[in-house]
Amino acid sequence: MMLTIKGLDLLYGDARALDVLAQIFDALPLREGDNPLANHVFIELRCAIEALGGHLTEAQLHKCEQADAPRRRFVAQMHWDVGVVKSCTCWLRIITAA
After folding, report:
1. DSSP secondary structure string, 30-59?
2. How far apart are CA 56 and CA 44, in angstroms?
3. H/E segment holding residue 10
4. Which of 5, 52, 63, 76 makes the best surface tag, with the fewest CB within 10 Å?
């Protein structure tokens, strides 16, 4: 699948997308409120950046923590086995770090 972003023709998994993904991450504002999915885009962007071999900056990590806070509060109220989420390693990594 080919995608053109800012003049770059990118294929799925193309590491050249890292700069664009980081710019999008930085430009998007955090949404206020307690909806655990309101800022899901930051989790998706983090997973995409890491899957391509990139790393978040300290500022991006902080923003990701803020974005994920409502979900962590929601999960903390639940009594369930995190092991059932093993099929999605990115979410598992984020859930177990909460």
Report:
1. PPPSS-TTTTHHHHHHHHHHHHTT----HH
2. 13
3. strand 8-11
4. 76
36-51: b or e for each residue (b if 16 or more CB lie within 10 Å)?
Answer: eeebeebbebbbbbee
Distance CA 92, CA 12 (A): 23
Note the pTM of the prediction, 2 decimals. Answer: 0.70
The 10s digit of each residue's pLDDT in 39-91 is 999 999 998 899 889 999 999 999 999 999 998 888 888 776 555 554 445 55
- CA dist 95 and 29 (Å) reads 22
Residue 87's domain comprises 2-97
Q: Look at the chain and report how many structural domains it folds into.
A: 1
